[in-house]
Amino acid sequence: MNIREVIEKRRTIRLFEKKKISHEDLEDIVQAARMAPSARNIQPLEYLVIDEDELCDEVFARVHLGGDLEREEVSENRPVAYVLVLLNKKKKEEKFEHDSGLAIANMVLLAESKGVGSCIMGRIDREGLMESLNIPPHYYVDLVVAMGYPKESPRLVEEGGSGYARDEEGVLHVRKRNLSEMFHWNGFRG
User: What is the dihedral of CA 42, 48, 49, 55, to 10 degrees?
Assistant: First the structure.
């Protein structure tokens, strides 16, 4: 797959197979995050990979993964790994969000190219994660990326609008706004 195909194929996955991701692939995925640009090259982000079953259960209990899906459905098809994106506050305390976004984009695109699905989560119990995973207080848990081999294949809907919904067969349909609704040349006219 070329990069455009990876970008167009990548969708948020919320239902995963019970198949482990190799440590080599997980390390490669984090390496992609590390290679992302960083403002003034400060590189304040660090990554905590969780793939042991018991620890995955700890993380799952502290994240909101399913969106509008039933918690039971998501629980039965939960991720097999998580990457916690951590801000090292000894390096930088604010204005790191662009670094995080760029790093996560690299991570999920490389994951997709390896057949690994992902879900980026910001609705998380940060304090609970810090306590249960013994994360030192000079770190901030920015986002959590759930990973695993997809048990679903969401479809892109090009009719405009936003949101997503499952059809009667359980296929997730993801709406994307039309390019004409969000693309402007040389300013706004009329």
Answer: -170
pLDDT: is 160 or 19 the higher one?
A: 19
Residue of 85 and 182 predicted with greater confidence: 85
Look up the pTM and report it: 0.91
Residues 97-133 have pLDDT tens digits of: 999 999 999 999 999 999 999 999 999 999 999 999 9
Q: Among candidates 81, 95, 94, which has minimal Cα distance to 30?
A: 81
**Residues pairing with 173 in the sheet:** 155, 165
The gap from C-alpha 152 to its chain's centroid, in whole angstroms, comes to: 16
CB-neighbour burial class of residue 16 (10 A; exposed 0-12, middle 13-18, buried 19+): buried
Q: Kindly state the tokens that stand for 175.
A: 């709406």
Domains of the chain plus CATH, in order, are 3-152 (3.40.109.10), 154-190 (2.20.180)
